[in-house]
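2024-03-11 09:14:02 INFO receiving multi-entity request
2024-03-11 09:14:02 INFO entity count = two
2024-03-11 09:14:03 INFO echoing inputs for audit
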Amino acid sequence: MTVLRRIGTTLALPAVLFAAWWVLSADSTDYFFPPLSGIVETLGDEWFGPRLTADVLPSLLRLTAGFALAAVVAVALGMLIGLSRTVRGLLEPVLEFFRAIPPPVLVPVFILFLGIGDGMKVAVIAFGCTWPILLNTVEGVRAVDPVVVDTARAYRIDGMARLRHVVLPAASPQVFAGLRQGLSVAIILMVISELFAASNGLGFAIVQAQRTFAITEMWAGMLVLGLLGLLLALLFRVVENRVLAWYHGLRRAHRAP
Amino acid sequence: MSGAPAAARDDVPALPAAGRPTSAPRGRRRRVPQAALGLSGLAGLVLLVELLPRTGLVPSRYFPPASEIAVALAELAGRGAFWTAVGDTLRGWAIGLSVAAVAGVVLGLLIGSSRLARELTDSTIEFLRPIPSVALIPLAILVFGSDIESKLLLVVYAAFWQVLVQVLHGVADVDPIAQDTARSYGLGAWARARHVTWPTTLPYVMTGLRLGAAVALILAVTAELVIGVPGLGELLNTAQSSGAVAQTYALVVVTGILGVLVNVVFRAVERRVLAWHPSQRAEVPV
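2024-03-11 09:21:47 INFO inference complete, emitting structure
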């Protein structure tokens, strides 16, 4: 019964909204807001057909490459910076400044260096999502319980072993917070970098549709982008719940009276 | 409610760490003050940006030395158009953030106060929130063109979810025992909202506002850059496409400074508003 209720409450509002959009737009002649039935049709024919490999895949590859690069570099650097008080004090204002730069303004700058190819797009994505990951890692490493670190030291757990088995796990909740922020920045930059100059990709296809006034295609593309954001967020949550299962359990235990 | 995992949160609440304060006093007298360290770090960055192009390690055509960027910055500061652009960017940011904040707080409190409303909206919120607001760019161009409404649409959409999700977390965090106690003392619905729910939610509201403010600035500049709404982003686009490289970098620096200012101001406000809250008093020795 509770399961049924849960399914009911989960699906009720989305169903109502979808139905409302469908009905209200059914014989819409408004140029900007075409009928939903047409959008869904385009979605199936175009986006889950030829465009899936022609546009969605290249975008996803660039996103993955940039994000993975940033994650590896930022977590490694963040651990090094976070461990030393002096280095942290020296670099923190610099890093805060880099994080505060709205990442899309980097696109024009990176075009100067790298032209408009795939390299520029991957570099923009990587550069933009480095900062939230890096700063969160530094913060996570800084907040590692000193008793744990001292205990590890007393047991002569040193060097890489301490980083790998003590510092990294302790910092991982904060690292994941950074990765999550980085991922949403990465999606934004994926789209923006394709808006400027590209011959394929989601952002390119959507803007192309808008420029040629293929409004139904444009709406379908926006839906694809929304679905992609949703899918990546779900995927991220699955990974996080798996990796941080111990942490969530610990928090629950602390909260319980 | 189990449906509210630690989704949109940048500050992971620290687990109670037993020995945290013990490491602080150790060796305080010989340490270089943090501010001096930070300043030398910034000075090092400026020096690096000066030397890299000067020594030819990076082509100065694409990467002008710091001194040239500074000159371009000074030149910009003497121009009225620049300050108009700063004003345009800040206006879009402020209006968008205010709309998003009011809508987020009001809706958050309304939804959060009813279990049924929470359950009904949970899936929809989780669906709409991850949709990147840049997906709205083509729609904004079509409907509003390069008017300020385009900017506002992106800013409000992006900042609204940050605020709403935090407020929902906050309302869910209210101690049920405190609620029951207030109820058994005969406090009405309004008094409970005012004296129990709101103080618990306030720290989350402040976090939501701070996150929303940062995102709002990003989207404001993005709208200017991509759609051509007047503001710093549009100026930057013009500078880049006309080959004014030093000016492009100067404008990037300006947006960075704006971002830092937004962050600093919101942290200060947070400290002031939440001066009574334990999270802000952690450093006081007991």
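2024-03-11 09:21:48 INFO post-check: Chain A touches chain B through 73 residues (CB under 8 Å).
2024-03-11 09:21:48 INFO post-check: The mean pLDDT of chain A is 86.
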